[in-house]
Amino acid sequence: MRKLLSLSAVALLAVFASAQDDGAFPDTPANHWAYEALASMKAQGLLVGYPDGLFRGPRPASRYEMAVAMHDVYTNLKNQIDGMQSLLDRSKAINPQDITYLQSQVEALKSDVAALKQLGPDIQNLQHAAETFEIELEQLGVDVEAMKTDMGKLASRVGALEKKKPPIDISGRTDFWLGAGDSRDGFLGLDKDGRVNGTAVAGPISSFNPPVPGAVGLIQDSNIIHEAAFTVASTNANGPKWDGTIVVSDAFGYERAATPLIGFGNQSDMFNPAYGSANIVESGILGYSSGQEDIYLQSGGITVGGPKADIELGRIGYSLGPYMFQRLDNSSYYSNPRWDNGEYYYDGILGKLALGPATFHIFGGRNSGLTSADGVELNPLRTGPIDGPFSGGPHVASGDRLDIDRSLGFDLELGTSRIGKIDAAYIFMDGETETPVNPGQNANRLGVYGTDGLLHVGPVDLTGGYHRTEVSDNNTPVIGSDNSAMNLGISAKHGSYNLYANWREVQANYLAPGDWGRLGVLRDPTNIKGFQFGAAVGLTKQFKLTANTEFDTGITDNYGLSTFLGSSTKITMYQVRLDYKAKKNLDLYGGWESTRFGDLSNSQGIFVGPGDPLYRWTTFGMECRISSRTKFTLQYELSDVDNDYQVTNGSNFRGGLLTSQLTFEF
């Protein structure tokens, strides 16, 4: 009898453990291990107890009582699977335009399929129980053979239903971001993206001289920005696949407004402090503000083919690495995969062909004209670093860059994850607008080519790359010297230790649209060479320490007017960060960063001031994972900046920036 009771408990308790608890029997203690399961089966009508309402758990059950309970479980299970099949069939006839109802049906199907994955062992237990209680079931008038046959079919149907998916998958993400700046001692703050924090006064940076009128605290200089993204994708295993992501947002910036709305600008341009009196969208740096409510298509297309070869058509994102073709992260204080994935989006084609250890990609299309409903460009593709020149000589940095309208690229990757790989690529970029380079010279095209390598040698990884850019006016070369970038690196991991060292040289006329680093507020520096070192150490299970340092020099004085760097320039950077896992879902951290530029004033006498800018930031923050799909972050950053790299008057910044972000995924 004890064996039979155990068998029945496995079948009953496992199948209905997820039902709602309406209260167990009065004689079942709340702390009993079976309390919730008994309450669930009572709520389902599978267990009714004795006439006096008690369960009488210690009393041995008769075989007839066990047979009745087992038959009720079988009937309930069959009804569940029949309902699941009915719901799946009905979903095929749903109008795809009814997104709300469709999403509710998809979520119901996901939940039911997840529950069905647990039913396999339960059906086996019921099949075994049917054989054990065969005599009692027959005496109850049950066709035992038909019941056995049905349970065999149930097992097959459960297996088939587990493999089925809803016709489409709907997911999304909503972000709410708060930014608040404050001033200290009459000085504003300057964050790592070059934004001025802690002022309620609008205007370019050249209008500010300490003490700054309008310096305010966190309440007066605070703004909230939001985004909601919705992704719909096909789930079919065979045949064409499609997907699309639509975003509703007020994060974009608007130049046309009477009072410029800054937001985050767009997904590729920086707000550059070097050109404070220029176009406000290109160089507006006065903190953050909510933009105009807008809607845009981030990505969307259809893919045909198989695992070895396929073609994707539509709005596509692609990147090739930091030194060649990678969109920079222009929103350091906002964490979002669409803004941070480094991919440039274009309307066109992406083809893939895989042959053994080799994979070949061809990609191309139109880069301009990807606008929101209100006409803001999504991620304009422009050549060159934000402060980069087109040539040396008398040309002074003005922010001029080539605007790219179309691009075509080829990428060949050869190797394996075990040994390493070599990646060679070429990108041709063409613009419809002629951009002045030198007096009497224009340019409208850029070619970027190069190769990157990775070699695994035990616990050590060796990396290296060489790249060049070629500027031309249609087919006439314009710049053919000082236009390369090189890097070599070594990294190793042992236990809780991670170490790396890297050397790089980026010449002044290297103009690839990449993202190879930040020094202070300077992004993608050129006319520079130097070493980088770093380490990450797990001190304990809760504490992790990370440290990075960099030592650079300018390459030549020939491009001092356009890069602000010369042969005597020295740059030192230090970063330290300590992470503490306070709880399973709570992380705390603190960090410090310092970057000093030395002897800038010797670069052909560019600066009126001393020309030794210093950037220091101290940061404290936390990240709380409220659930698997909800996260909250909070950070406060103090700035201590002498920004005479880009501003010679009123260049001191001593304020702070408070940011927080709440993210929901569904």
Can you tell me about this structure?
The chain is of the alpha+beta class and 666 residues long. The protein folds into two domains: 2-166, no CATH class; 169-662, Porin. The chain contains ten helices and 26 strands. It has helices at 2-15, 35-43, 63-91, 99-116, 119-132, 134-139, 144-163, 280-283, 337-340, 560-563; strands at 168-182, 189-190, 196-197, 222-234, 241-249, 294-305, 309-318, 344-355, 358-366, 406-416, 420-438, 441-457, 460-473, 476-479, 484-494, 497-506, 518-519, 522-523, 528-538, 543-554, 570-583, 586-598, 614-627, 630-642, 652-653, 656-665. The protein has a 20-stranded antiparallel beta barrel. It has a two-stranded antiparallel ribbon with strand order 2-3. Helix 1 (2-15) packs antiparallel against helix 5 (119-132), helix 3 (63-91) packs antiparallel against helix 4 and helix 5 (119-132) runs antiparallel to helix 7 (144-163). The longest helix is centred in the N-terminal third of the chain and has 29 residues, at 63-91. The chain is globular. The two termini are 48 Å apart. 34% of the residues are buried.
- For the record, the CATH class of the largest domain is Mainly Beta
Question: What's the pLDDT, averaged over the residues?
Answer: 78
- Looking at the structure, the CATH topology of the largest domain is Porin
**If classified by CATH, what would the architecture of the largest domain be?**
Beta Barrel
What's the number of structural domains?
Answer: 2
Q: Can you count the helices?
A: 10
Radius of gyration: 32 Å
Q: Report the span from N to C terminus.
A: 48 Å
Helical content (DSSP H or I, runs of 4+): 10-25%
The overall strand count is: 26
Name the shape in a single word: globular
Biggest pleated sheet = 20 strands, antiparallel, barrel
The parts where pLDDT drops under 50 for at least 5 residues are 1-22, 203-211, 273-284, 386-398, 603-609
The fraction of residues assigned to DSSP E strands is 35-45%
